[in-house]
Amino acid sequence: MSIEIQRNPTRGVPIGNVQIGGGADITVQSMTATKTTDVDATVEQAESMRQAGASLVRVAVDNKKDAEALAEVRKQSKAVLVVDLQENYKMVTEVAPHVDKVRYNPGHLYHLEKDKSIEEKVRFIAEVAKDNDCAIRVGVNCGSVDPDYKERYKDDEIEAMVRCAVDHCEILDKIGFERYVVSLKDSDPLKVVDANRRFAGFRPDVPLHLGVTEAGMPPDGVIKTRVAFEQLISKGIGDTIRVSLTLPNPQKYEEVEAGHQILEDIYAGRFRSVPDLGKGLNIISCPSCSRVENEAFVELAQNVKELTSYAKDYDITIAVMGCRVNGPGETDDADLGLWCGSNSVNFKKKDVLLGTFPYEEVIGKLHEEIEKLIASKTAN
Q1: pTM
Q2: Looking at the domain 282-379, which fold is it?
Q3: What is the helix, strand, coil percentage profile of the chain, to 5?
Q4: C-alpha distances in Å from residue 324, one per residue of 37, 162, 216, 342, 357
Q5: Which residue, 87, 136, 184, 366, is the most exposed by fewest CB within 10 angstroms?
Q6: Domain residue limits, the chain
Q7: For the segment 365-374, what is each residue's pLDDT rounded down to a tens digit?
Q8: Computed over its alpha carbons, how large is the radius of gyration of the chain?
Q9: How many CA atoms lie within 13 A of 232 on its CB side?
Q10: What is the pLDDT of residue 325?
């Protein structure tokens, strides 16, 4: 059995030799987890993703050394490359000559040159992108929403994300830059569904990049992602996808394989029952990417999963984040959160820091706090 899906009539956005939207097939993309300055490893991983079927491969660039390495990656890889601008939007001048698309997060634009307006910064990015034949992704994340929108829509976090994305589309339209796509991501697949449905209601013409952040480890991470993709793609929403999984570096290409399998199943009508993610233990962990400051993060995430298996029937959310970009914000809503630095792990209960511990000690601290939560829930 196969199903006919009436896709949203989004405009086509050319990115290198790939088109997103405009009736083109839904593409699958991924992100390297190597240190970008390790050119050989980054090229090897980008190529493994491309050969697994990734239409685009994203690379993290955080400084000039990363940008210099990116130029070498570009020479050696056949992949269509994308770069995140992180907090320093002016890095676009360093990276745009070597990639096919740049991604900026509206929630990070306020970090640099606070005397300039958001529109001035977006115009700068767009002009550099245009001069270098690059497309743009406006990437809105739940853990780093622009503070102005968080304040304006304090009672509706989804609306804050959506309105921010809509307003940035209007800025780009006003500038006359049309080669852009949008993403609205959260670690909760149901929030991803809600946000993308709302956005598509406002701007059905804009291609959407779908993804569930910090989906975690397989198979749970694939299931969470499938929940969102099944509900959105079956309704015609979504033009490119990324499956974000916590995996060791040699296995990162499996994100691409998982994405293609999900698409194949959706179009074949093979839908699985949607689990109620509000019940039972929920472990959120970010995809292992090149922003991770210590690869021990992946082993820690695996240890957390093993440790907490006994608590599977309790409504507890634990977030394990691998970097300073998303770690602080995206652990705030979890019952217990761990965001990892180069030598230690910041351990939180909701938005309260309980302490900073070595990697080998934090698992014991986590166990203690889980026991306290279980005792509290049992008493209630």
Answers
A1: 0.79
A2: Sulfite Reductase Hemoprotein; domain 1 (3.30.413)
A3: 45, 20, 35
A4: 19, 24, 17, 10, 16
A5: 87
A6: 13-267, 282-379
A7: 999 999 999 9
A8: 20
A9: 36
A10: 65
